[in-house]
Amino acid sequence: MTDELELTPGIRSKPITVKTIANQRFTIKHELGRVPAGWLVIDCNRAANVWRSGAMNKESIELIADQDAELTLVLL
User: Fold this and answer.
1) Which of 5, 11, 4, 48 is CA-nearest to residue 26?
2) Are the CB atoms for 73 and 16 separated by under 8 Å?
């Protein structure tokens, strides 16, 4: 099949490391040229939930974590 459905979006960014403060929004600027399909946390120094807290557009994504943590994530 040449028209297979892509069920899992591919990784589209290099790993991005951020330090989060519990319940404080943070913005990641990117140069994907499109709205990300999402993100994956690939490393974390403590258990933390991360979710979108605002804008997700062609230039940036706004997230929030429920714990102080050092996260490494990739954009999809």
Assistant:
1) 48
2) yes
- Rounded to whole angstroms, the Cα distance separating 23 from 30 reads 22
pLDDT (tens digit, 9 = 90+) per residue, 2-22?
Answer: 456 666 778 888 999 999 999
- Specify the pTM: 0.84
Q: Please state, in angstroms and rounded to a whole number, the distance separating the CA atoms of residues 3 and 53.
A: 34
Q: How many CB atoms lie within 10 A of CB 64?
A: 17
Give residue-wise pLDDT tens across range 41-76: 999 999 999 999 999 999 999 999 999 999 999 999
